[in-house]
Write a structure and sequence with these properties.
With 230 residues, this protein is α/β, with parallel strands linked by helices. The chain has 2 domains: 139 residues, 3-Layer(aba) Sandwich (Rossmann fold); 80 residues, SIR2/SIRT2 'Small Domain', CATH 3.30.1600. The protein has 8 helices and 11 strands. The strands form 3 sheets. Strands 5-4-1-9-10-11 form a 6-stranded parallel sheet, with helices on both faces. A hairpin with a 2-residue loop joins strand 2 and strand 3. Helix 5 packs parallel to helix 8. It starts with a strand and ends with a helix.
Length: 230
């Protein structure tokens, strides 16, 4: 099977009603992004950050995978598919995708503030002050915040370098280091860019631009793959 690697962003979950990361006014769900997505914000107002992600989990629980998620999962019948996602929701997994690399963390996991190697699957949507890890320190959301390292970046780069087909879906390619992944894809392989506003990617060969929302854009990508027998 050929290896299809997909980089997905907020646009793919927007069709499920999940709010995109940042509105045009620079706010995320009415909050300054740095207040809820940075170590500084966490230390300044832990209760605000915990409440913010509790609400994100509630919203995620009421959302369902959309056609875009399902189409990518179904492509595993014909391709060896790896999804690299900037999203922290679990909609790719719930749609049936079996190989998902979460660059920016996972909403339904928590992490020790004392030992970042201690990561826990959450079986509920609330994380509160006083919820501690086994070493007695406060648990925090398992989210990669601004200013923090992206631990899954090496795995993402390796998958991209080995891809036979690469697709960027529902992302503006403005957030680094994720945005740089397209430069790790093989020079001569087909690269699909699917978004309502297709991002500008200079000096990259074999770009196939599809200006559309994620679900219809993936449908068009599938038609092109089938017609060209890639």
């Amino acid at each position: 099977m050929k290896r299809l690697v997909v980089l997905s962003g907020a646009g793919i979950s927007a069709e499920s009603g999940i709010a995109t990361f940042r509105d045009s006014n620079g706010l995320w769900e009415g909050h300054d992004v740095m207040a809820v997505a940075s170590p500084e914000g966490w230390h300044k107002n832990m209760a605000l950050v915990l409440d913010f992600y509790n609400k994100r989990r509630q919203a995620c629980l009421s959302a369902q995978p959309n056609l875009a998620h399902i189409q990518l999962a179904n492509l595993e019948k014909e391709y060896n598919v790896t999804v690299i996602t900037q999203n922290v929701d679990d909609l790719h997994e719930r749609a049936g995708s079996s190989k998902v690399i979460h660059l920016h963390g996972e909403l339904f996991k928590s992490q020790s503030t004392q030992d970042p190697r201690l990561v826990y699957q959450m079986d509920h949507w609330e994380l509160n002050i006083g919820d501690n890890c086994e070493k007695g320190s406060q648990l925090r959301p398992f989210i990669v915040w601004f200013g923090e390292q992206v631990p899954m970046m090496d795995a993402a780069m390796e998958a991209t370098e080995n891809a036979d087909i690469f697709a960027v879906i529902g992302t503006s390619l403005l957030v680094y280091p994720a945005a740089g992944l397209v430069n790790y894809a093989g020079r001569d392989i087909p690269k699909f860019l699917i978004d309502i506003q297709v991002p500008v990617v200079p000096r990259v060969k074999n770009l196939i631009k599809i200006q559309a929302q994620a679900s219809s854009g993936i449908g068009e990508m599938i038609r092109q793959l089938q017609s060209s027998k890639i």
